[in-house]
Each structure stands twice: as structure tokens, then as C-alpha cells.
Q: What sequence folds into this?
């Protein structure tokens, strides 16, 4: 795995934890402990995302446009399968 | 509205092409219990939901299913890259190839194109939530069958993740149905439509 893939895995893992807690909180809206964990992951996911975007390019479409946004790899590409490696 | 994120919910990194595997897995792209059907079902059912928990639940799960739709697309794409014509002929992928080459198109494993007839949006919270519980189990069964048919760990890994999500969604929908039935009044023991017949907050 390349350093980019390692960091992307961390971003995806933190985002996933955040999302799964969000889903849990839809049916347990007043679970304060889950809400605290959600807040913790929110901070962690934000940090990791910023770190990834600074090194490897945008994830959220609001952070960049044009050439920087368009640059490979796209999510379905694997390392080495796209042109501008 | 929706906004794209340039990442998969769970990574897909498949090294070896496998047309046979692609041909069965594509059923989760455009088949009867696939991710496109799931997403359209939940995102469409949201509007007539009388309770905020269920609006939230269907929105979150409907959006997650779109992410799974993208993961299945990535799996099928990576499984069909660099195939030789010989492999395409031998695997039986030729019947798909003739119409789509290696483009990703929503069909079932048996080649039936996607149709909205796979889903329902009934405007009845009890009916819709019950449909969703069945839908999650049907999708879980399909993933179990894919795991029976596919050996490559690179493919099994994201498929196992998607299978687990069906289990979690079933659990959340069960809780959602309970939240709805808890609000029925005591005369409504046959659980008829509380979204049409005056919802109780």
C-alpha cells in the first residue's frame, strides 16, 4: 500500500465510524454517550481529511475545482491504473 | 441535495481480473436486491414518513446505499479491466460484453436490466418499514451467495463489509419500525397506516 492509500484508509475508517454513529443516533437520539463518541470522531475525521487534502488533493468538492479536482486517481482507480502516476 | 465526495466508503483494490465474479456481483449494481434499488427505495419513501427519526434514518441509509452502488461499480470495473477476449469467451461474460463492452451497466446477474418494479414506496410507514426489513435480508442473502461463489480475498473483503451493512441496516430499520408502532394508539392493533390516518406525534 502506498502512503496515500494508507492515509485514505484512515480517512475512510474515521468517516465510517462517524457515519455509523450518525445512523445509530437516528434511532437513539438521546443517547448521550454515543453523542460524545460522535463528537470525538467528528474532530478526528476532520483532522484526517485536512491532512489528506493537503498532501493528495481534494475529497470534498467544495475544497477545489478545475485541474486540482480532476486529477487522478478517482475512487475506483487503483494505484498504477491511471495515467498521471 | 447531494454533494460528491471523491472517496469510497470502504476501499476496493482488486489485483486480478475475474469476469465470472464480475458477472454475479453486478447483480448488486442493477439487480432486484441491489444497491441502486435500495437507494431509490429509501430516498423515495422518505417524503411520506410521519416521524422525524424515520426521515433521518431513510435519508442516511439511502445515501449510504448510493455509496455502496459506487463500491459495487468499482468492484465490477476492477474485475473486468485487462481481460483478454479468450477469458471473456470462456467465462460467459461475452453475453454482457456484446452489449456493453466493459462499461458498467445496471443489470442483474441473469442480464435483466434495472427496473423500478424491484422497489416499492407505499406511503404507509408500517408497510414501507416492513418492506425495508425484507429488502435488507434479501440483500444479505445475495452477499452470502456471492461469498459462496467468490474466493479472491481482494473481492471478498469489500463484499463482507457490504454484507455487514445489510445486517446493521436491518437492525436500524427494526428500531425504526418499533418507534413507529410505539406511536400507534391502542385501537390500532392491526397497525394500519398512521401516516395517512392522522399521525400521532
A:
Amino acid at each position: 500500500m502506498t502512503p496515500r492509500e494508507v492515509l485514505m484508509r484512515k480517512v475512510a475508517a474515521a468517516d465510517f465510524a462517524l457515519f455509523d454513529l450518525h445512523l445509530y443516533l437516528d434511532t437513539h437520539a438521546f443517547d448521550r454517550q454515543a453523542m460524545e463518541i460522535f463528537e470525538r470522531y467528528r474532530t478526528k475525521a476532520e483532522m484526517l481529511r485536512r491532512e489528506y487534502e493537503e498532501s493528495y488533493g481534494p475529497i470534498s468538492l467544495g475544497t477545489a475545482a478545475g485541474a486540482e479536482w480532476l486529477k487522478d486517481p478517482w475512487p475506483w482507480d487503483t494505484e498504477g491504473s491511471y495515467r498521471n502516476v | 441535495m447531494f454533494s460528491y465526495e471523491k472517496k469510497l466508503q470502504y476501499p476496493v483494490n482488486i489485483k486480478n481480473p475475474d469476469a465470472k465474479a464480475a458477472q454475479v456481483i453486478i447483480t448488486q449494481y442493477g439487480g432486484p436486491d441491489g444497491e441502486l434499488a435500495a437507494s431509490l427505495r429509501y430516498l423515495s419513501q422518505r417524503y411520506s414518513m410521519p416521524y422525524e427519526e424515520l426521515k433521518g434514518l431513510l435519508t442516511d441509509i439511502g445515501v449510504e446505499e448510493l455509496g455502496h452502488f459506487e463500491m459495487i461499480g468499482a468492484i465490477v470495473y476492477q474485475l473486468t479491466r485487462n481481460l483478454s477476449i479468450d477469458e471473456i469467451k470462456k467465462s460467459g461474460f461475452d453475453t454482457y460484453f456484446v452489449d456493453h463492452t466493459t462499461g458498467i451497466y445496471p443489470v442483474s446477474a441473469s442480464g435483466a436490466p434495472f427496473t423500478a418494479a424491484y422497489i416499492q414506496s407505499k406511503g404507509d410507514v408500517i408497510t414501507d418499514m416492513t418492506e425495508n426489513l425484507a429488502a435488507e435480508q434479501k440483500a444479505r442473502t445475495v452477499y452470502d451467495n456471492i461469498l459462496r461463489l467468490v474466493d479472491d480475498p481482494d473481492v471478498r473483503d469489500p463484499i463482507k463489509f457490504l454484507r455487514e451493512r445489510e445486517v446493521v441496516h436491518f437492525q436500524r430499520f427494526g428500531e425504526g419500525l418499533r418507534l413507529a408502532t410505539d406511536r400507534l394508539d391502542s385501537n390500532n392493533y392491526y397497525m394500519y397506516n398512521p401516516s395517512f390516518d392522522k399521525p400521532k406525534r
Remarks:
- The first helix of chain A runs from residue 3 to 27.
- Residues 11 and 47 of chain A are 9 Å apart (CA to CA).
- Helices of chain A lie at 3-27, 32-56, 67-70.
